[in-house]
Every structure is written in structure tokens, then in C-alpha cells.
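Sample intake sheet
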Amino acid sequence: MVDASGTPPRTRPGTVTLSSWLLILVAVIQVLNLIVALTVVGTIRDVLTEAYAGTSAEGAADIAYAFSLVMAVVSLLIAAGLVVLALLNNRGKNGARITTWVLGGILFCCTGGGLVSGLAGGMTGGGTTGDVPSSDEIQRRMEDALPSWYTPVSLLLGLVALLALLAALILLALPKSNEFFRKPKAGWEPPVPGGAYPAYPSHPGQPGYPAYPSYPPTPGTPPSAPGGQPPSAPGDQPGERRDPEPPSGS
């Protein structure tokens, strides 16, 4: 990796590279989990419609279906954001690393909560409220209608994403990663040919030397022509040869 002019090149450590690949893996799992969820969203809607038919919560199926579509869009945005953050982290952008910690922490909590809820889904119960079926009844209908592979695949994808995200966040906090994201010091820049050299700095507490003033010419001395040549006599033309005057008295 080569930084801007005036700064030494930086080598990206393996911890940052591995962290970026793990972030991309989490993004891929987000997309896979979304595909799995979309394959059964119609089945879930049919189960809820049948379960809540003729009750006060008859519109719950449509609400759950709309919520699933919104979460699908959010999952795609999160996956795209993780890929962008991974690329920026590889370039040493400290702001991207901070954003990764914030977004990754929120995603870690949401994924962990969903994973715990999925594992404990069959053990939680609830009573009925009015004419609405109980949560046990809804859970039983879901298990009968959904494919047998849906729950294990969802839990496996969630567990892998959780572990990969945690490892990516830890790798970004290691000392080697901190050194890579630290702002480099500007190096020495050679002077540009034809440019002016900078003034030599004076030591602290010691004033710089002032520039010497130019002295006025001595009275009676004719000014010199450009280039240090004596001024030409009146009437002389440039390039004209002038014969010497004969000595007086001859």
C-alpha cells in the first residue's frame, strides 16, 4: 500500500486482511439467510392467515409479510455496507474501522438475539389473549408447515455469521491493526527542480540573520549596464566598432 506523496509506504498486516475477508463472509451469509427466509415467507403468511382468521388479529399475517419484505431490504443494505467497510479497512481508513465497530456491534447483538430466540423458540409458551391463538399453537402450526431443513439451516447460518463478525471486530482492535490505522508522519520531500529552496531555519531562541541592504552607488560613478558591462558612449550603436582617437599634438 502506497500513501500520498510525502508519507512512507505502509504494509497492510494480515490481521486487517483477515478481518476484511470475515466481514465479506458475514455479508454473504446475510444474503444467503435472506434467500432462505424468502423461500418460506409465503408459507408463513398462509399459516398466520389461517391461524388468525375470524379473530381480532386477522390482519397480523399481512403485517408480518410486509415486515419480512422490509427486513429483506435492510439485510441487503447491511450486506453492501459490510463489503464497503471491508474495502475501506484494507486502505487504512480509520473512520471505516470505527464505523465497523459501531455497525458490527449492533449487528452482533441483533444476530445473537435472533439466534437465542430461535434456539429457545420451542421451549417458550404463552397463553391466549381473547380469541387469538396461543403462541404454542402458532409455533406448532409453523413447524408442521415449514420444511424440515429450514430451522437447522437458519440457526447454522446465524451461528457462523455471529462467530465471523466477532472475530472480525477483535482483529481490528489488535496492536498490529492499530499501528496500520494510525495516521503516518509526513516524510522528507526532495526539492522540485527549478523550485526555490526553503530558508534555513534558525535554532530555538536564536534569531535569524537579517538580509544585508544594498549600498547606493558612489557619486560620479556611471551606472553599470545590464550584465556588468560599462555603459556605451552616446552615438554608439550595438555591434559598431569604434576607432581609437589619435594622440594629441601629432
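Comment: Residues 14-124+133-181 form one domain. The chain has six helices and no strands.
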